[in-house]
């Protein structure tokens, strides 16, 4: 590709293509990726950068994975898509068998959709329909501050009310119940006072609450915070006590990211509904799943509507299901637990000492998630240029520098990522 051709492409991109959370009048820097392999993204000028983000948590095996490539090619030669209404196919059946087999015991019924946000919408619909003819007053949701569940309207209504998008969409988003975020960190001694806000809110409002939705153990885009598993255990107990369903949003945490196959395993609980996405296909295609218990599924199915009121066009897409099957097989036959444990140990050694830096207020690591919380807000445009110049792809936000690399990353590659984080703390990347 000539430089002129590339310049024309990038000019069109800048003027016509709206990227995530980006202004059309003041766009952020954008880099032209030509290919990807292993943990490296190759830019169109030949520059290679180490991906520290796993393409927003999804590419758990890295890029250009032979087993996943083959699965897609084989399936594409048969059929890439067929409607799921009144039709089924082997890739979807196999995928649902796998999901039922590896998720917490009791989750037996699977609804496939095409994105994480939609899986949350489906979960919320399940909860509303579950109570519709049993206790019609149960139409609200309770959730915790600093949470993030997606950008569609139902999902937005249970995202953080202060740092999310509530103000922009006031009057459109359904009002929900919010409680304080868990105050006890993952590795701190448990304090019973941390659950009191949830207990009090449920006691006072349970007759109006259909479900409690939360990200188990790790709050992702809302602050990259890790909380104590006991909070999740007691939340499950309180939900059962007050007849409130528990929805676990494992879109970001599922498939090994926290050191457990699913974050709920840290607390040894089974939610009533679980949302999955991101890593389900190893980052190859968009796909999501919402799993629930047979009791919830049968209650909905025996209700007035007789069906779950949802049906995406690309539900159960065979191509996506085929690559998801290959991704799960690859994960379950790999040494992912040792890989994640190794990543965790190396990041602990490299990142936790950075709390001594003047520009750092906290450093935390869980599984293959490493987080540096900074004292000042990061200028994303400045930071992105510096990171690429230093040979890595890290996309910070607010006061958070974080990485969640593919599980296949080598010690040397991870050392580079961590070293760059340390280096940029002294660079000019801060909001003036």
TrEMBL record:
Coiled coil: none annotated. Pyridoxal 5'-phosphate binds at residues 116-117, 249, 312-313. Its EC number is 2.6.1.62. The keyword S-adenosyl-L-methionine applies. The record marks 21 as: Participates in the substrate recognition with KAPA and in a stacking interaction with the adenine ring of SAM. Substrate binds at residues 56, 148, 278, 311, 395. GO terms for molecular function: adenosylmethionine-8-amino-7-oxononanoate transaminase activity; pyridoxal phosphate binding. SUPFAM superfamilies: PLP-dependent transferases. Its cofactor is pyridoxal 5'-phosphate. One of its GO terms (cellular component) is cytoplasm. The keyword Zinc does not apply. Keywords: Aminotransferase, Biotin biosynthesis, Cytoplasm, Pyridoxal phosphate, S-adenosyl-L-methionine, Transferase. The modification N6-(pyridoxal phosphate)lysine is found at residue 278. PROSITE patterns: AA_TRANSFER_CLASS_3 (PS00600). Gene3D superfamilies: Aspartate Aminotransferase, domain 1 (3.90.1150.10), Type I PLP-dependent aspartate aminotransferase-like (Major domain) (3.40.640.10). It is found in: Cytoplasm. Catalyzes the transfer of the alpha-amino group from S-adenosyl-L-methionine (SAM) to 7-keto-8-aminopelargonic acid (KAPA) to form 7,8-diaminopelargonic acid (DAPA). It is the only aminotransferase known to utilize SAM as an amino donor. Homodimer. This is Adenosylmethionine-8-amino-7-oxononanoate aminotransferase. The gene is bioA.
């Amino acid at each position: 590709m000539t430089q002129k051709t590339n310049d024309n492409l990038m000019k069109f991109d800048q003027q016509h293509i709206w990227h995530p959370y980006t202004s059309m009048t003041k766009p952020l820097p954008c880099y032209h990726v030509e290919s990807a392999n292993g943990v490296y993204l190759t830019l169109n000028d030949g520059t290679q950068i180490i991906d520290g983000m796993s393409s927003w948590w999804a590419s758990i095996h890295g890029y250009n994975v032979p087993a996943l490539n083959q699965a897609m090619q084989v399936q594409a030669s048969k059929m890439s898509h067929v409607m799921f209404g009144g039709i089924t196919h082997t890739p979807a059946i196999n995928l649902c068998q796998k999901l039922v087999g590896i998720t917490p015991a009791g989750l037996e019924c699977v609804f496939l959709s095409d994105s994480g946000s939609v899986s949350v919408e489906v979960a919320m619909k399940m909860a509303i329909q579950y109570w519709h003819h049993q206790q019609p007053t149960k139409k609200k949701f309770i959730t915790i501050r600093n949470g993030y569940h997606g950008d569609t309207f139902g999902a937005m209504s249970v995202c953080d009310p202060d740092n999310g998008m509530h103000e922009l969409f006031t009057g459109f988003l359904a009002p929900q119940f919010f409680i304080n975020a868990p105050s006890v960190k993952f590795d701190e001694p448990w304090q019973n006072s941390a659950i009191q806000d949830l207990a009090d809110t449920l006691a006072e409002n349970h007759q109006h609450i259909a479900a409690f939705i939360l990200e188990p153990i790790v709050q992702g885009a809302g602050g990259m915070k890790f909380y104590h598993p006991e909070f999740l255990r007691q939340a499950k107990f309180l939900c059962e006590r007050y007849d409130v369903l528990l929805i676990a949003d494992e879109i970001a945490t599922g498939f090994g990211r926290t050191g457990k196959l699913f974050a709920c395993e840290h607390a040894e609980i089974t939610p009533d509904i679980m949302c999955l996405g991101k890593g389900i296909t190893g980052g190859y295609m968009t796909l999501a799943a919402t799993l629930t218990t047979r009791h919830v599924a049968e209650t909905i199915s025996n209700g007035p509507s007789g069906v779950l009121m949802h049906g995406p066009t690309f539900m159960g897409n065979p191509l996506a299901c085929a690559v998801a099957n290959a991704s799960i097989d690859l994960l379950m036959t790999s040494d992912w637990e040792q890989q994640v444990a190794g990543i965790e140990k190396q990041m602990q050694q490299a990142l936790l000492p950075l709390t001594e830096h003047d520009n750092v207020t906290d450093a935390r690591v869980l599984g293959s998630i490493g987080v540096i919380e900074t004292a000042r807000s990061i200028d994303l445009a400045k930071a992105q240029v510096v990171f690429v110049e230093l040979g890595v792809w890290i996309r910070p936000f607010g006061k958070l520098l974080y990485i969640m690399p593919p599980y296949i990353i080598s010690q040397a590659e991870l050392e580079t990522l961590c070293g760059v984080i340390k280096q940029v703390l002294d660079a000019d990347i801060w909001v003036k």
